[in-house]
Specification:
Distance between the termini: 69 Å
Strand content: 25-35%
Number of strands: 24
Radius of gyration: 25 Å
Mean pLDDT: 91
Strand order of the largest sheet: 15-16-19-17-21-22-23-24
Oligomer: single chain
Number of helices: 9
Length: 453
């Protein structure tokens, strides 16, 4: 690395943005001092951001720095997670006082990200940037924007509270669009999207994105079929399990798996939180099924209470671990859903004996957990129809095609309603035109058969 001037500070990384330390290169054995520390990585609301980098003349990645009063400060960027949803930001960090000042932040009704820096002033503060801008009905496009006046106004204000006010009240910087990507599915403009919150029976806060067809009128149309698409995640603290990790102002790409069925008259509950919490010395999976069913029940109760759908017209689906979740819900919450759709899942945990997802214990240490969590061993309990889809070339070690083949055999052997669709040459995700269209057709037929009463 390049030689450092005597007394210059050098940033020492401890991996990622969880902890970073500053050292003095003039000292033989420098003393490390943590300048960025996230006490709990699950708490996205406390995320100060990650260090912003750039390429030097040698093509190497180095940190972007800002000179202020002769001192070196660092630029940060983050998702800006909050109760209102994600609002990406850029900030400057003083490594001596550990004070972070936000210089720019996305504001509703737009969702913006700084995609690239085009110019900076003599101190290193950004002037012209390329923004990636989108909204619920506007396809993401790129704009050249000069944010220097806003940054100058904020850095010139010594009062922290007034800085925060300026961040939200300053006029949006003028910009020049450099791309004009059109809406890929203009017929879906007007789709109603809502970031909803509700609670599980044990008090854990949950959230989801609720989509309604563009022409849906609750007063005249009444309840309509609903497709719920989810993926469970593990946590060690219930307080952080319900934090919002997305934005209600983002563009909804029609290619996202469940959103296609908006065009078929279905409501969609996308990404409902299914947190599996293990407090203290408890492991999340020790109560996996109980928490899974409780989260599903809370989601169903919420959409029914809204009058969006009725209890006998709700389908549950997911991909990979979401498929595993789907099969478990049909086995352990009979009648809660009209049917299930499981893509590329794993159903027999004895075939992943050295751990899966965040489970670090082996099957030989906790055989009861592996057995209890395996829908394959509970196939005889499933009462509702299950559609299994899998790529026949899935090389993901946790979800080999064998998993769906054996699950299908187990269900058919017990006389259950089940269909297995094997997609030729496909890996864990499906890419071929024929495979994608085949999957859409199979799922549509399945949902129409069991959800449209």
């Amino acid at each position: 690395s390049e030689a450092k001037e005597e007394g210059e500070t050098v940033l020492m990384g401890a991996g990622g943005d969880v902890a970073s330390a500053e050292v003095d290169s003039s000292v033989a054995v420098p003393e490390k001092r943590i300048i960025v520390d996230r006490p709990n990585w699950e708490d996205v609301y406390s995320d100060q951001g990650s260090f912003v980098s750039k390429s030097n003349d040698a093509g190497k990645s180095i940190l972007r720095t800002v000179k202020k009063d002769g001192e070196t400060h660092f630029l940060l960027s983050g998702s800006g997670a909050s109760e209102e949803g994600n609002m990406p930001f850029m900030a400057v960090l003083d490594p001596h006082s550990l004070k972070t000042t936000r210089l720019w932040q996305s504001r509703p009704p737009m969702y913006e990200n700084i995609a690239s820096f085009l110019s900076e002033d003599e101190t290193g503060l950004p002037e012209q940037v390329i923004l990636r801008r989108e909204s619920t009905d506007l396809n993401p496009n790129y704009h050249i924007s000069d944010i220097s006046s806003g940054i100058e106004a904020i850095t010139s204000e010594p009062d922290e509270e007034k800085q925060k006010e300026l961040l939200q009240s300053l006029p949006r910087a003028s910009s020049l669009a450099i791309t004009t990507f059109k809406h890929p599915a203009p017929d879906s403009i007007g789709t109603k999207k809502e970031y909803v919150t509700y609670e599980r029976a044990d008090g854990v806060k949950l959230n989801a994105q609720l989509y309604l067809p563009a022409n849906y009128n609750p007063e005249t149309d009444g309840p309509i079929p609903l497709f719920m698409w989810a993926y469970p995640r593990e946590f060690k603290d219930a307080a952080f399990a319900g934090q919002k990790r997305d934005s209600p102002h983002r563009f909804s790409f029609p290619s996202r798996v469940p959103l296609y069925w908006l065009t078929m008259g279905y409501a969609i509950l996308d990404g409902p939180a299914f947190p599996i919490v293990g407090q203290g010395d408890e492991e999340p999976n020790d109560t996996f099924l109980e928490q899974l069913v409780a989260s599903a029940q809370a989601a169903v109760d919420y959409v029914v209470s809204r009058g969006v759908t009725s209890r006998d017209t709700i389908a549950i689906g997911g991909h990979s671990y979401g498929a595993f979740m789907t099969a478990n819900l049909l086995a352990h919450a009979p009648g809660l859903f009209a049917c299930g759709v499981a893509q590329s899942g794993a159903y027999n945990r004895s075939l992943t004996p050295f751990g899966f997802q965040s489970e670090e214990r082996t099957m030989w240490e906790v055989p009861e957990v592996y057995t209890k969590m395996s829908p394959y061993f509970n196939a005889h309990k499933i009462q509702d129809p299950l559609l299994l889809i899998h790529g026949d070339a899935d090389t993901n070690p946790g979800t080999l095609t064998l998993q769906s083949e054996r699950m299908f055999q187990a269900m058919k052997g017990h006389g259950k309603v089940c269909k297995f669709v094997n997609l030729p040459f496909e890996q864990h995700g499906y890419r071929g035109y024929e495979s994608v269209m085949h999957s859409l057709a199979e799922v549509t037929e399945w949902l129409d058969t069991y959800c449209k009463k």
